[in-house]
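Hi support team,

I submitted a single chain yesterday and got back a structure, but I'm not sure I'm reading the C-alpha cell output correctly. Could someone confirm the output below corresponds to the sequence I sent? I've pasted both exactly as they appear in my results page.

Thanks,
R.
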Amino acid sequence: MRTARIAALAAALASCTPNGIPSSGGGGTGGGVVHTVDLNLTVYQNPTSTPYGPSIAIKPPILDVAVGDTIVFKNADGFNHTSSSLPLSSTNGETKFPSASPLGASALTESGTTLSGGWSSGALQAGATSQTVLADKAGTYLYGCFYHYSANMRGAIVAQ
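Hi R., thanks for writing in. Yes, this is the structure output for that exact sequence:
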C-alpha cells in the first residue's frame, strides 16, 4: 500500500515538472512548450533555403523543439493545406526533401500524434488548426503539404 502511494506521488510530481511524464490522452502535451507553425501560401511566398532543400509558405521553415514539446499547425490563409510527415523511406536514408511528393491520398485524413510515429493534419481549411503532435523522440522530421508539395511547401522539425 505504501509503495503504491509513493509511486502515485512520484508520478504526480514528475508530471508537474517541465518535460515530466507525458499525458497519455490523445496526443496531449508532453509537459513542454506548445509551438504553432503557420501554413500560409499567400504571405510567406519567398523561398527559404534550408539544409533539407527549399521551403516556402511555412513559418518557421525549420522548427527547433525539445523532446516533450508539442506542435500544432495552423492554416493561416484561404487555401486548403496539410501538414504531413514524409516517410523516411522516401528520403533514401538522407535528410533531404524528396524532389517528387511521397504523399498519397492518406495525407488528406488526420492521423498520428507523435513525430516519430508519423502524422498528417488532414485537409485543413482556412483558419483551422491540426491535432497536437508530440515531440516524443530526438531527431529531424520532414513534412510537407499534400496540395502544394511541388511548390516547395515543406518544412522540418528538429527535436533535441
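A quick pointer for reading it: The helical segments are 2-15. Let us know if anything else looks off.

Best,
Support desk
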